[in-house]
Model the fold of this input.
Amino acid sequence: MKKALIIAVALILVSNILSGFINLFTKGIIATYHYQSENAEFKFTVIPAKGRGVDMMEGHFTSFKASNPDYKDLKLYRTFNKNLIEFWNWYAFLTDAKYQYEYRDEIDLKPGKVTSGSYK
Done:
């Protein structure tokens, strides 16, 4: 029993160190992460492989709020779940900025409806 526990812990530790390689096979080369405000006034897709990171999103969000004073108290949410079965991502779930936003279901806007400040 003790040996199995040590092996399980070692497997989790090693897999978290190698999570970048594991995610390459499980999520593909270009992983995307979607964020939006409560009523989809602002939307952004983070694509780390293309240089569209959380820093860029926060810059766009700050600019959006500055140019739209009605939305100065707007809050940003991630619209993707942390899949806890993916034990190789546990360290990233705790430390990576893209996972630090609160979760909220994505609002699917009706086709043709345009919101000001949507960034894709």
